[in-house]
């Protein structure tokens, strides 16, 4: 019985150690690039707009940076927000969160997935 108990404890210790190693690897190496999307960032002071873009969209620098990190070109977004687009955003994320985003809050990854259908229209 003691041998079985030692085998079970040893197995669980190995599984626990491997789990810790896996979590540390995923955190430090970040193979999926999620760390940049999950951590709030400060807007950068550099201007990386390509030549020939008007920059007439109404995004804060932090919102623009978030969209670029999410793989969305801010220059491909509509320059004006139509009432239909605004209604779609309100339906997707709720009125309170939509007002926060319009006021300049950086959208979360969840907000982006919820409102992605609005951007594809």
Mean pLDDT: 80
| First-residue to last-residue Cα separation | 66 Å
Note poorly predicted spans: 45-56
Strand content: under 5%
- Individual helix count: 6
Radius of gyration: 22 Å
Helix content: 55-70%
Largest sheet: none
Overall number of structural domains: 2
Which series of helices and strands comes N to C? HHHHHH
Helical/strand content category = mainly alpha
Number of strands: 0
Shape: elongated
Q: Can you describe what's shown?
A:
By secondary structure, this protein is mostly helical. The chain folds into two domains: 1-31; 35-42 and 57-121, no CATH class. 60% of the residues lie in helices and 0% in strands. It contains six helices and no strands. The chain has helices at 2-29, 35-38, 61-69, 83-93, 95-102, 109-120. α4 (83-93) crosses α5 and α4 (83-93) runs antiparallel to α6 (109-120).
Q: What labels describe this entry?
A:
single chain; 121 residues; 2 domains
SSE map:
Blueprint (H helix, E strand, L loop, with lengths): L1 H28 L5 H4 L22 H9 L13 H11 L1 H8 L6 H12 L1
Helix pairs in contact: 4-5, 4-6
Task: Briefly summarize what is shown.
Helix content is 60%, strand content 0%. By secondary structure, it is mostly helical.
């Amino acid at each position: 019985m003691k041998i079985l108990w030692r085998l079970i404890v040893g197995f669980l210790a190995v599984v626990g150690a491997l789990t810790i190693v896996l979590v540390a690897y995923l955190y430090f190496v970040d193979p999926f690039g999620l760390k940049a999307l999950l951590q709030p960032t400060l807007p950068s002071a550099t201007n990386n707009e390509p030549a020939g873009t008007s920059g007439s969209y109404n995004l804060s620098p932090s919102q623009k940076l978030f969209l670029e990190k999410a793989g969305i070109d801010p220059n491909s977004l509509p320059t004006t927000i139509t009432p239909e687009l605004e209604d779609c955003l309100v339906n997707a994320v709720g009125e309170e969160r939509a007002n926060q985003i319009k006021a300049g809050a950086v959208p979360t990854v969840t907000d982006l997935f919820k409102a992605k259908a609005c951007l594809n229209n």
